[in-house]
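Why do we bother with a discrete structure alphabet at all? Because it lets us treat a fold like text: something you can write down, compare, and reason about line by line. To make this less abstract, here is a complete entry for Branched-chain-amino-acid aminotransferase. Read it the way you would read a sentence in a foreign language you are learning: slowly, and without expecting to understand everything at once.
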Amino acid sequence: MAAIPYDDRDGYIWMDGSFVPWRDTKVHVLTHALHYASSVFEGERAYGGKIFRSLDHSKRLHNSAKIMGFDIPFSVEELEKAKKEALEKSGLDSAYVRAVAWRGSEMMGVSAQNNTIHLAVAVWHWGDYFADKMKGIRLTHAEWRRPAPDTAPCHAKAAGLYMICTLSKHAAEKAGYQDALMLDYRGQIAEATGANIFFVRDGVLHTPTPDCFLNGLTRQTTIALAKARQIEVVERAIFPDELATFSECFITGSAAEITPVAEIGAHRFTPGHISLTLAEDYSNLCNGKLELAL
Ligand SMILES: Cc1ncc(COP(=O)(O)O)c(C=O)c1O
């Protein structure tokens, strides 16, 4: 069955303060964000009618906008209310929540000092990010590298940074893989195209220090879950020549949740005890079956 295009669905999207019929939430073709990537967004999941770490996502959206040089004209509290209402109006219990803020159409050059800032929240059903994910996904190596912190605003969840992610993901899919491992500008392991990465060696978790890519909320949750189980977590620079020394690997993200990795290029990993335990803990936490101070 063909997927329903995202602009041709029933329901409502919250946009600039009110609910608008889904098909009518349009922007003009001369919108600054479309030409200059002046847009920031969040990807969140709701479980059992509650958005997981909703407030942290809303705060991050505001912070991403600040990094990009604009203020969202709705407070974090107003955004929280909009997301809650959008979820309720969708009638969905488990759902994906997309908040997006962008520069509008008043100025159409590199400079857009006075453009109106818009905000929208859409909610839809989105199953697993990867088909059959607990078997472990296959990653190839990306050609593109995460840029240095003085090359791009790497801690904002900003649309422009996804240019190299889409290129890498498309190349991976074309080659028969599900995703790609991106290195950073120094040649260190960074992350996948839309998720952070963890490795296991001798019962210890190793994950790259997020100094030039998003320190994902799922990454932070995973570290807290591991610590609650007395699993040692080491955040450090990890180079590709270490891949052969790891027994397990998984990626983390709001969309991907905790997804085991079976393969990165020539290297093989087994979705083992630590990956599966943390994936289960994460699922229990999101579904309110486990308590954890975050
Ligand atoms: C490039 C990238 N890195 C990491 C993440 C993980 O972030 P989070 O766990 O906050 O969803 C995401 C997903 O939002 C992402 O797009």
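What the structure line is telling us, in plain words: The mean pLDDT is 97. The chain has two domains: 12-124, 133-286.
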